[in-house]
Design a protein that fits this description.
Number of helices: 2
Strand content: 35-45%
Distance between the termini: 25 Å
Order of helices and strands: HEEEEEEEEEEEEHEEEEEE
CATH class: Mainly Beta
Low-confidence stretches: 1-16, 22-36
CATH architecture: 6 Propeller
Shape: globular
CATH topology: Neuraminidase
Largest sheet: 6 strands, antiparallel
Length: about 270
């Protein structure tokens, strides 16, 4: 997905460690809020040794869990299935993982050898793998974004999966199959990711809600694996010129709020 990955490039370059921001040590007045001021926040490196970290969640044990996109790989599916021309050919491997960071910053692997893919070198080899994680009833769930034949990994799919106590995983829902069987109203055929580029998810009442920016959709996934579409933004923001892909997502007081990524160049309003 060209738009999503290019917009994320400045973030990926710096996303190799976790940063802890201490509370501000001084306040600014309402007048100062309208001016550019230097922050007095104290920045501390909390953990290192992460490979393209994505979603972060604190677990019921008080430790921080991190979804890592991984390092991609060398496997290719050129000639086997469609890929976005400007982003492909994708190459992939099984280098994605989920890590646990203890309170002293020590990293340990929760589960690894998960699908990870990368774009062509002209786009910087931008990497996708596990994109986000959630805890439901004390169990760890994760969302995969770098899998699928369209991402260079034959025989794999983007999924929601559960991490078991013994370190194995159980597929809960097949996201790739859902988007292929239930296309949005107005897909952008010039920049179309068949397996999707799943971005973030939140849990509300034991149900997961996930954003997929390339197809412009937000979906609802139950723990039994049932997937239903909540909103198809392609009916409101028709691509290619009107494309608005949902990325970040939160729930508050019964409402969902999500950020969207637009097209380039960015025109300030």
């Amino acid at each position: 997905m060209l738009r999503l990955r290019v917009r994320s490039l400045p973030l990926l370059a710096a996303a190799t460690l976790l940063i802890l921001l201490a509370p501000l040590t001084a306040r600014t007045t309402s007048v100062q809020a309208h001016m550019l001021t230097h922050s007095s926040a104290r920045v501390t490196i909390f953990a290192t040794g992460l490979n393209n970290p994505r979603g972060l969640k604190f677990g019921p044990d008080g430790n921080l869990y991190v979804a890592e996109g991984g390092l991609g790989g060398t496997q290719s599916t050129v000639g086997q299935c469609p890929q976005v021309p400007a982003a492909g050919p994708y190459t992939g491997g099984f280098t994605s993982r989920i890590s646990k960071i203890s309170q002293d910053g020590t990293r340990t692997t929760v589960v690894d050898q998960l699908p990870s893919s990368q774009t062509n070198p002209m786009l910087g080899g931008l990497t996708s793998g596990v994109s986000d994680i959630e805890f439901i009833d004390g169990k760890l769930y994760a969302m995969e974004a770098g899998a699928g034949c369209s991402h260079g990994l034959a025989g794999t799919n983007n999924t929601i999966f559960r991490v078991n106590a013994d370190g194995t995983i159980t597929t809960v829902a097949n996201l790739s199959a859902f988007v292929k069987a239930h296309p949005v109203a107005n897909p952008d055929l010039g920049d179309f990711e068949p397996d999707g580029t799943w971005y973030s998810m939140v849990e509300v009442h034991d149900v997961v809600y996930a954003t997929e920016p390339n197809h412009q959709e937000v979906d609802r996934i139950t723990r039994s694996g049932q997937i239903t579409r909540v909103v198809d933004l392609s009916t409101l923001f028709v691509p290619p010129t009107g494309w608005q892909g949902p990325t970040s997502l939160v729930s508050h007081d019964g409402n969902f709020y999500f950020g969207v990524l637009g097209t380039f160049p960015v025109t300030p309003k």
